[in-house]
Design brief:
Blueprint: H1 8-12, E1 19-23, E2 34-40, E3 45-49, E4 57-60, E5 68-71, H2 78-87, E6 90-100, E7 115-117, E8 123-124, H3 138-142, E9 162-168, E10 178-181, E11 190-201, E12 209-212, E13 219-221, E14 230-237, E15 243-249, E16 254-261, E17 264-270, E18 276-281, E19 292-298, E20 302-307, E21 313-316, E22 331-333, E23 344-351, E24 354-355, H4 358-363, E25 368-370, H5 376-379, E26 388-392, E27 395-399, E28 405-406, E29 412-413, E30 415-418, E31 423-427, H6 435-442, E32 457-458, E33 460-468, E34 474-481, E35 486-491, E36 497-502, E37 510-514, E38 525-532, E39 535-540, E40 546-549, E41 558-559, E42 561-566, H7 577-582, E43 589-596, H8 601-606, E44 615-618, E45 622-623, H9 647-650, H10 655-681, H11 683-692, H12 713-720, H13 726-736
Antiparallel strand pairs: 1-2, 2-3, 3-11, 4-11, 5-10, 6-9, 6-11, 7-8, 7-10, 12-23, 12-25, 13-22, 14-19, 14-23, 15-16, 15-22, 16-17, 17-18, 19-20, 20-21, 23-24, 26-27, 28-29, 30-43, 30-45, 31-42, 31-44, 32-41, 33-38, 33-43, 34-35, 34-42, 35-36, 36-37, 38-39, 39-40
Domain Fibrinogen C-terminal: 1-51
Transmembrane segments: 668-689
InterPro entries: ConA-like_dom_sf, EGF, Fibrinogen-like_C, Fibrinogen_a/b/g_C_dom, Laminin_G, Neurexin-like, Neurexin-related_CASP
């Protein structure tokens, strides 16, 4: 039985994040498993298959041969890739031709010099950004070729470098197995070819489902051809305690799968030696309206049945007797002759590696509806950190808008690197909002909407965030108010954490000091503070939570909260002396997943949300995950990874950020040591230089420039590749000549 999931989509619905996975696109069919890269984005799942052709492969130059053939060897067989492309909703592959006196498609009228070979060894004469039957490049379709007489930039035959590139997205033709380059036999002719990996998105088979709403309704398909081997797998979801999943009859032979009771699934068949039945009994009810997976196999040697992760039940076939399953009737799904049918949902029904299109058939069958609802009951637990599960027609997604996190499961930290002097202010009341609107918008409290804005007050707060820094003292977070009340999280001069509350009624603010732990050690730390009335619970990193209590005289209302500050406190009016002192020159380091009650100020600053109008930033906020939950991708061995040199920049999500943060943390430590040395030796010089040549520093990540505007990771890399910018430089030179 299959050890691997059928697709990246299936791995996502086990709560898996982006990584390399083995998938088995035809179950236990003949294809066998293959290793792909699954990129789980917020709303889509991308499956990527790599090949061994280097980017910017040079052809021509010295060679005199008429045709140059570039062969692409994939990390999967053509049949395996076809299984992925045929079940995908959309596939694409980037292709690029950089040329110097080397024509491409020979437009407008001529025979193409260069073509590519796709699935089934077919030649194709269209290029990236264009479509089948259209002998044009992207610039010909967009009408912006360098020379409008031609439909490709390269066809103008310039002596300078030019380029034609774009996505091939007609999935029936993919993947590219060869590129044949022709126009290279003149002196000075040169070309470079790049082909990206095949990327496919969506899995039509995984969500192909039907809902059976009456017990007499069923779908029928042509007779199941499973004479010597049968491999049947599907998911079901029901609240009924019994029903027939599917049945196919012969004269006396038959095959049948049914839910016998709330805890029993049965697989029965007869190949002429009398009926055989295998039953899997579940310790928990199977009619709990959750998805359950059934896998039934039968061959000449044995038969087996598995439900979810329960133990596999196997029955050996008799050594003598009949072995062929001879069926004549139609295959019935969801009921059987005269027996009580199945009520509920069946999805992703595969028989001998072929997915039956339940959805199409359900559209024309009374009593059966296409698709299925209620995926959140099964998959909602994957939406973490307070993310809400949202039902979709084919699956679900996680809504992270009320959280400080991001990503498909709300587990990706949203954080930023702060340089000295930078700050962020989140105003709880946006200018010019009505009070009614204000209370719902700020999400600060469910206080009576009739009170005026500054009178809003809190009896309880919940605050959580992560930080890393090597500088102390500093103010990590400060919540100001229209009254003397405030709350602050500080790192004191010894590098110890302090939580400070001033709610009135006490001479001095109430402090919680966490001594004996240096927090300014450059490592990521997590802080969780919950206050309910007088009781405060603090959890730091993975230490057990500790409880504290405000003094008996202290007020327990946080009156009229005004704004939340990160990095530095810039507030008018009287400010606590320590806070003023610690806040200069400001916090340097990383802050992430900051959440105060329902407010996520950093996320509001970095992601456009309806709360973004509340945020004011001084300085340039650079996004970073602060090493709080770095994405770890196990390296492929050079043998299995054909892109072994380029793969770092190929298609890995967040790769730049992960590297950027690593560099930042190490350099912070090394920089600290060096700074001390320089400081002691050249103290005054440094002082002078700081004031004479003071300029705003910037924090660099290794993210490809242009990544923001690029359609995909590949496109960002293309935009960032130095060879691709040659075209621009050349055109500048032309004007200078």
């Amino acid at each position: 039985s299959a050890i691997y999931e059928l697709s990246c989509e299936a791995y996502k619905h086990l709560g898996k994040t982006s990584n390399y996975y083995w998938i088995d696109p035809d179950g236990s069919g003949t294809l066998g498993p293959l290793k792909v890269y699954c990129n789980m984005t917020e709303d889509k799942v991308w499956t990527t298959v790599y090949h061994d052709l280097q980017m910017q492969t040079s052809v021509g130059g010295s060679s005199v041969e008429k045709l140059s053939v570039l062969q692409l060897n994939y990390s999967a067989t053509m049949d395996q890739i076809s299984a992925i492309t045929s079940s995908a909703e959309y596939c694409e592959q980037f292709i690029s031709y950089s040329c110097k006196m080397s024509r491409l498609l020979n437009t407008p009228e001529g025979n193409p010099y260069t073509w590519w070979v796709g699935k089934a060894n077919e030649k194709h004469y269209y290029w990236g950004g264009s479509g089948p039957g259209i002998q044009k490049c992207a610039c010909g379709i967009e009408r912006n070729c360098t020379d409008p007489k031609y439909y490709c930039n390269c066809d103008a035959d310039y002596k300078q470098w030019r380029k034609d590139s774009g996505m091939l997205s007609y999935k029936e033709h993919l993947p590219v197995s060869q590129v044949v380059v022709g126009d290279l036999d003149r002196p000075g002719s040169e070309a470079k070819v790049s082909v990206g990996p095949v990327r496919c998105q969506g899995d039509r088979n995984y969500w192909n489902a039907a809902s059976f709403v009456t017990s007499s309704s069923y779908l029928h398909f042509s007779t199941f051809q499973g004479e010597t081997s049968a491999d049947i797998s599907f998911y079901f979801k029901t609240s009924a305690s019994d029903g027939v999943f599917l049945e196919n009859l012969g004269n006396t032979d038959f095959i049948k799968l049914e839910l016998k009771s709330a805890t029993e699934v049965s697989f029965s068949f007869d190949v002429g030696n009398g009926p055989v039945e295998i039953v899997v009994r579940s310790p928990n009810p199977l009619n709990d309206d959750q998805w359950h997976r059934v896998n039934a196999e039968r061959n000449v040697k044995q038969a087996s049945l598995q439900v979810d992760q329960l133990p596999l039940q196997v029955r050996k076939a008799p050594t003598e007797g009949h072995t062929r399953l001879e069926l004549y009737s139609q295959l019935y799904v969801g009921a059987a002759g005269g027996q009580r049918g199945f009520l509920g949902c069946i999805r992703s029904l595969r028989m001998n590696g072929v997915t039956l299109d339940l959805e199409e058939r359900a559209k024309v069958t009374p009593g059966v509806k296409p698709g299925c609802s209620g995926h959140c009951t099964s998959y909602g637990m994957y939406c973490a950190n307070g993310g809400k599960c949202v039902e979709k027609y084919n699956g679900y997604s996680c809504d992270c808008s009320k959280t400080a996190y991001d990503g498909p499961f709300c587990i990706k930290d949203v954080g930023a690197f702060f340089e000295e002097g930078m700050w962020l202010r989140y105003n709880f009341h946006s200018p010019g909002t009505s009070v009614k609107d204000l209370v719902s918008r700020t999400l600060l409290s469910s206080a009576d909407p009739e009170i005026t804005a500054p009178d809003l007050s809190l009896n309880k707060e919940e605050l959580s965030f992560s930080f890393s820094t090597t500088k102390s003292p500093c103010v990590l977070l400060y919540v100001s108010s229209y009254t003397p009340d405030f709350m602050a999280v500080l790192v004191n001069p010894n590098g110890n954490l302090q939580i400070r509350y001033n709610l009135g009624g006490t001479k001095e603010p109430y402090n919680i000091d966490i001594d004996h732990r240096n927090m300014a050690n450059g490592q990521p730390h997590t802080v969780n503070v919950t206050r309910n009335g007088r009781d405060i619970v603090l959890q730091l990193d993975h230490y057990p939570p500790t409880s504290y209590s405000l003094p008996a005289t202290s007020d327990i209302q946080f009156n009229s909260p005004k704004a939340l500050f990160l990095g530095k406190v810039i507030e008018i009016g009287k400010i606590d002396q320590d806070i003023y002192k610690y806040s200069t020159p400001g916090f340097t380091g990383c802050l992430s997943r900051v959440q105060f009650n329902q407010i996520a100020p950093l996320k509001a600053a970095l992601r456009p949300t309806n709360a973004s109008s509340h945020v004011h930033i001084q300085g340039e906020l650079v996004e970073s995950n602060c090493g709080a939950s770095p994405l770890t991708i196990p390296p492929m061995s050079a043998a299995t990874d054909p892109w072994h040199l380029d793969s770092a920049s190929a298609d890995f999500p967040y790769n730049g950020q992960a590297i950027g943060d690593g560099v930042n943390r190490n350099s912070a430590i090394i920089g600290g040591v060096i700074a001390v040395v320089i400081f002691t030796i050249l103290c005054t010089l440094v002082f002078l230089i700081r004031y004479m040549f003071r300029h705003k520093g910037t924090y660099h990540t290794n993210e490809a420039k242009g990544a923001e505007s690029a359609e995909s990771a590949d496109a960002a890399i293309m935009n960032n590749d130095p060879n691709f910018t040659e075209t621009i430089d050349e055109s500048k030179k032309e004007w200078l000549i």
